[in-house]
Write a structure and sequence with these properties.
Elements: H1 2-30, H2 36-57, H3 69-96, H4 99-106, H5 109-121, H6 127-144, H7 154-177, H8 184-204, H9 214-227, H10 230-241, H11 245-250, H12 255-265, H13 273-298
């Protein structure tokens, strides 16, 4: 029985990592046919439907009765943080930077999470944590070089800043949700439902709230299903079924390397050696930090 659960866990985790690896390519393709707001509106609506169907299938909607007004207000705020603010900034970064650069800069959030936990959760930093952070941040610097062209263009500098800022937003989102005891799929559905309402209402004043072409809708559909919707559930199921979450969690760091493959083959990006080396340093720092964190909890 345990073997079957372990196999399922790995299948779900590998599918999730594969889908997340293709997301940067979908972002870049979608942004060729629509702007950031339209792409986000379309993807958020699709994701809301997907998460709603998953919640309905799991009989989770009955739990909505237990939500208090403050808990619903919390979903409104979290929905504004993610997906609205987070993805608007992320899509803008992707509209400027190559996928091979934007994706690894965005995934620095575990290190940012440790930094934010110091003032917010009053946690202490160990020397190992500091060393891991320096390793990851050195990777960020090398990735940002973009083969030696990263600092030459002010647009590139803006894109790098935006990509890095998303890691702060995601870390804050993660911290605020750590003490939430509601079903994660149902909570995510509410967050996206409220975000959809905001995006639609605000989009009316922009006169063009939706993707203007079928290509834009195809990208929104893919992102809504495989970046924001079902992939989260697959990952959650993988973590729950796995006999040990450590091995499953580390699989996610394959994503930036797979992203290089998709970026080169589909988008036609020339992969910089600085990107490969920088990702290696960045991921190494995050893995060391994760191992150190788990060891600290066991002591």
């Amino acid at each position: 029985m345990k073997m079957k659960s372990a196999r399922k866990a790995y299948v779900f985790a590998i599918l999730a990592v594969l889908f997340w690896s293709t997301s940067p390519t979908a972002f870049k393709l979608g942004l060729r046919f629509t702007d950031t707001w339209q792409l986000l509106t379309g993807a958020t609506l699709v994701s809301t439907v997907v998460l709603g169907l998953l919640s309905l299938r799991g009989g989770k909607f009955r739990a909505l009765r237990s939500f208090t007004r403050p808990e619903l207000a919390f979903s409104v705020l979290m929905g504004l943080l993610n997906p609205v603010v987070y993805y608007l900034i992320l899509f803008k970064a992707y509209s400027i930077l190559p996928a091979q650069v934007a994706q690894p800069l965005n995934m620095i959030w575990p290190i940012v999470l440790v930094l934010l936990a110091v003032p917010i959760l009053h946690q202490r930093l160990s020397w190992i944590s500091l060393g891991a952070m320096l390793l990851s941040f050195s990777g960020v610097v090398i990735v940002s070089l973009m083969g030696g062209h990263g600092s030459e263009d002010s647009q590139n500098r803006q894109g790098i800043f935006l990509a890095l800022s998303t890691s702060v937003i995601w870390a804050l989102y993660f911290l605020y949700n750590t003490r939430d005891n509601k079903d994660p799929v149902l909570r995510l559905f509410l967050n996206f439902a409220f975000a959809s309402v905001f995006l639609l209402v605000a989009g009316i004043f922009r006169s063009k709230p939706f993707p203007p072409s079928m290509e834009g809708w195809y990208a929104s559909l893919y992102i809504g299903v495989f970046e924001m919707g079902i992939t989260f559930v697959l990952w959650l199921m993988a973590i729950r079924l796995a006999p040990s979450s450590d091995r499953i969690s580390n699989l996610v760091y394959i994503a930036p390397f797979l992203n290089l493959l998709f970026a080169s083959q589909i988008l036609g990006e020339k992969i910089y050696i600085t990107t490969v080396f920088g990702i290696f340093l960045l991921v190494s720092g995050i893995v060391i930090q994760n191992i150190n964190g788990k060891n600290a909890k066991q002591l």
